[in-house]
Amino acid sequence: MEKSHQKKIDKKYTIAIDLVQKPFVGNKKSILPDTCQEFSILYEAFLNSKKKEEIKIECIDLQRNDSLVYFKNEFSNNKIKDYISIDKRLNFSNIEFDKNFSKAIIQVSYTTSKLDGILLIYFLEKIKGNWQIICEKGISIS
Q: For residues 69 and 107, what is the distance between their CA atoms, to the nearest angstrom?
């Protein structure tokens, strides 16, 4: 068991990220979690935002030796499995900041296969120079 666990820790993952951050996806009448009421004005702006921005993966500092690639629809095609193996796929919505850039909200979907994924909204606050998750809200799971 120990060897199996160490193998998982040592594995180098290929993570695909969608190039464009898209607006919020989901029910706009979503209820703000009780623990995040201080985000209410920012949350409303987040739900109504129509921004689309590109992600620059070269600016992402990885903590491990994983590989980041931009997701392409061809990766979903079974014939390309020999070409590239995607271990994880991340999609990010646009990020909404407050006017002081001290609070932020972002929606993230994380999938490992067509039927294995989760969609979450993260409520973040910058504390002592570092972004911290204050609370999160699950939108969907498959």
A: 20
